[in-house]
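User: I've been going back and forth on whether these two constructs are worth ordering. Before I decide, could you fold them both?

Assistant: Sure. I'll take them in the order you sent them. The first construct and its structure tokens:
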Amino acid sequence: MAAVNFPRNRAVLTGVSPLVKTRPYLCWTLALMLLLSSLPFSLGKPKKIKQIKATANPADYIAFSKKLDKEERFRHALDRLTFGPRPGDLERIQSMGLKKWLDAQVHPEKNPESPVLQEHLAPLESLRMNIRETYLRYPSPQLIANVARGKGQLPDDPELRAIVVRLADRYLERKDLPANAQLDTAEDSDLNLRMKLGDFLTREQIQTLKNGKPEDKRAILETIPREKWADFAWSLSRRERGQLFNVAPVALRRQLMLANNPQNVVTSDLSEAKILRAVYSEHQLQELLVDFWFNHFNVYIDKGSDHYLVTSYERDAIRPHVFGKFFDLLIATAKSPAMMFYLDNWQSVSPDLDNARGPKSKAKRGLNENYGRELLELHTLGVDGGYTQKDVIEVARCFTGWTIANPRKGGDFEYNDKVHDKGKKIVLGQVIPAGGGMSDGMKVLEILAHHPATAHFVSLRLAQRFVADNPPPSLVNRMADTFVKTGGDLREVMETMLYAGEFWSPGSYRAKVKTPLEMVVSAVRATGADVTSAFLLNNQLQRLGEPLYRKVEPNGYPIANADWVSSASLLDRMNFALALAHNKVPGVNVDLKNWQAISKDDPIALARMILEQDPSEQTKAAIEKMLGAKDLQLELAQNAKAGPPQVPSLIAGLSLGSPEFQRR
């Protein structure tokens, strides 16, 4: 479209009517009206929350036809569409207005991200690397140690070879060990280090670093110049480095991890970033959806090469598409090396290939059905989506040849036509003619992305995550209708849910139990705490049963309440809450100075501040019982390893561990 120059003065027009000569802006007014009339009508229509009639669903769903009051809606938005409110968030959403706040969350691109978050993410360098850069920068420790011993074969890749040689050169020579000594190839105890700890610290400092208090160790580490961190890390033994992980600043701790096991830096960066985004991001709904869709298209980070691949998977395949088209998201995950490696599709070849090689061939690979099965059952149609085992096999045949390029070529998606099954396939009754290539897989993705069963299954899963374990059929059906009408526009599907009366109803209010990630992050946000080390906070998630990116099975972590509720898990959550409130959770700093004054005259006032509403009668009774029993105070603090009990911290801890705080 050519640029339009608006005249500053009245132009002399020829060949046009006198009316236009005397009123030059009429043309622009008409043009603007035509332009606006061509835009979707919905852009000019403010969205409204629509209540449903009680008869829209079976009688079991009657609660979804009722309304929340205005204050409950604000709290529901913060509990369900964020990782939990921070101090002041309730006042901000009330001032901003619910609809404007919702629009900001559904359109995160319109709002700047938190500079605090950007500062926290800056040291995590692997988050910004492509697959090849990650592969080169973080080689395995076994490879480095073996090259240092003179036993390992140098990598063929010249760039990787140079990096491994440089790292192996950190070792001086092998120690003299007995001939029958058993060596762990993952260890380096048989190798002398070129750098010596005495080059950086005095004897007294070395002793403090080995036996001192955490705060004294931290003070010594802060005296080491940044430019010497790498050499300092290589002056320590593997065990000594590991003992400093919990006290070292983020950038130095990454150097220590690089010296111990470079691959662990990648997984640590990714887990830390997830926690930091959940705590600090202004785009809270986007972060919840990234978590949801990664879980929907789950991969397991500890399976071989997925160490290197999951970072780009979440960044490039999941994150850009959470408000986009489902078809694009499906293609991105299907082509992702992380998914292909996890479900073994990178090795899947035409069955005819093995037949041609003969029965004596050792290089048998064959057809692999893993991706085809999970694509149908978990990613699109659902287990009741109407497919058969024959469809699984036909889909697997369509994806033969979809593989991963050699790391020297970038390690990205690659199609190998030589191993593709060229025969005719029939998927869900649709014929895919013989002689095709990569287009066979693309055709399958197109069929599945636009299938009515996919529309329903995806809508159901979103509603189960954001509304209730058993969401009302009326809502799921409307979301599925939107999915079909918009070609799988996920932003439109989410807006259908967010402006539905069922979402803003007593049936949805506090109907979901927080996962460990949601519980930990919401507690940090509720107390206004600062995360000093997401690496250490990630350890809490492992104890509570949700190690990030480490769900082995392809169905991901559960989203149903029953899977997260047990007496043992609730006790663990209470102990975490009490430890956090006493400032005893490593990696988190809680400002406790105002709690004493708040709780002095009215202990429940502190609980009210933490919960941003009156605590339940059950929680009030627990707090009052604790206040009157010194033995109970001591027992609670000891169980949580929180140190000497502090009454304000016990009040805050009981609030964070309360049944109402476990719900969202």
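The second construct, handled the same way:
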Amino acid sequence: MALAVGLTMTACSDFLDKEPLDQGTDAIAFKNPTQFEQAANRLYSFGAKWDVKFEQNLDISGIGGNGGGAAGESHGAWGFGGHRECNILLEKAAAYAGPLDQMTADNPIAASVGTAYFFRAWHHFNQLRTFGGVPIIDHVVDVADEVVYGKRNSRYEVADFIIKDLKRAAELLPPKTKIPGMDNRGKLCREGAQGFLARVALYEATWEKYTPSIGLDLDGDGETVGAGKNKPEGYPSINELFSLARDMSKAVIEEAERGTFALWDECSDTGLSYYYLFNLDDGNGNLANYKGVGKNTNKEFIINNPYDFANKPGKNNLCYTVTTGQSTNISAWFGETFVCSNGLPIFMSTSASWDDVYPNPEFGGYDTFEGEFENRDMRFIGCITLPYHVNWTGSTEYGEPLTKTGQPYPTPLFPAPSNKYDPMDPANQSKNGVYNPMLGVNSTHNGYGCRKYLIEGAGRPTNTESPDWPILRLAEVHCIYAEAVCELGNGAISDDDLNFSINKNRKRAKVAPLTNALIAGKFDARWFNFATGSYECHAMTMLDEIRRERTCELFAENFRLDDLKRWGIAHINLTGRKLGRRVLGTAYTNPANTVNGPASVANYFGEPCYNPDTRPLQYGLASEDPSDPNYGRPVATLAGNCFWAPRDYLDAVPLGQIRLNPNLTQNPGW
């Protein structure tokens, strides 16, 4: 019984567990609008929560090794309990109110029906992203249903089904202006359905445009392999999908311009708004940031999974995980991708020749540990631990918590110069000691760390951190619009469209607007060619810059792997040699900079911060030739450790399900 497996789901209401119903949607009577709302509340299961380990082992975080696995017996995404819950509500709604295609938004159960359409699309889209084509579950299935032992629908049939469900959801859900109040902040609204539809349309348009070039037919014939190529009548073209993404994102942005939504920028004085957006956790008197503002100031999250310290704690050990460096990382390549405040890369060129390279005049260089962080995109600066700062943290074993407003960072203490560890030095007795960075034994120097999602306040004991988790936020909608418009323009986009969309994100990050004039005739001289494993000079294009902007805005939010796949570059970016941060010709090799760290590195006091004799790099240096673009960089990842292949664009259909239903075909390459 292939589809019968997993036809149950954990009970969950939409926001703060307002309507706990232990026996499932089947147990609800569906005799009045209140009961339909109770059933709709139960559908809120995004399968997404705070996970600070999102996007580990990718190009933006650093790769140790990947790929090469075998198809599994089971898979967490091959389950249909959520689909069933939605279909129960929809069938009950038709019996209660008549044909659903005739329902209008003023019907008392319209919002509940819209919620069911949204989540049915949500569950199918998660499977589309994972497997491609899957069985479409558009009704309540029992074990005798023909779909249980049927074939997979093609990805095009599934995408068409998702789009139609989301269009219907947008018609029936109320606008955000009709759902006021903090208690309703997790409730679905019309703009949420529009924004999610824009995400789906952009995803599918780019997938269909770019993945045919990867060297593997991911659709298959649908008979012996894959889910096939069948397209339903009236299926949209690639440009029609881009147009849908543009139009839906535009509608949301226009609503934002009327004041319904807004980028959160309460900490604009320091440029730290982006960082603090993700740790708004002020319940029960906790201090979430140096401004003392909380969740009630956040109009950026269009769809979110709300948490509350008292009623629905997050139960994720965010503080400890981030503070101890176990969360996602910002890789060397990705860190250097963030532009300077003038909107341009850290190194540029007037041609494709390395002879014409020059540093961005705003870039602080490598002569000091601090230099490369000067005048940079604040999304980068805010989310790393700078060499001259320490962080507030709720994990008091490793630092001090934020207890008063007005100070975005603790006051650092610097030890007195010494070739010996002095336990009496105030810096060595403090959690706020700041020391010269050092490269340890077998380092690859492939990262800047990451403090995104760090909860700073003192009122959050372990596993009680409870910021809201963003499912869809306005900044993503800006990115969707810009990318869709640029694709429709064959790589061109007007300055007006850039100002309407991603330049709003850049303004918060203290970065100059992206314009056509800004990048005209310029080359990015820190462009990493993932196909060759080397840096090169690359002519700047609008599509590249829009993709850069998306990557910098949405990192560690679980978008990157999908983006690499839909752009048709995952098999390139996730394989081959990777390089770390430059070591030679930097502050690390200045003899005046010696190790003066805490007791854990006492044995190295007085040594250079980089000592290849006592602390060699794991894989050595890529080049010691100053004229080489890869000069002074450690090899961070060996090409021989990466086995990510074109087949990995889609996961394998679980072998256990294929045995239960022989009509299920396996995905290509598995």
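Notes on the second construct follow. The mean pLDDT is 94. The longest strand covers residues 523-529.
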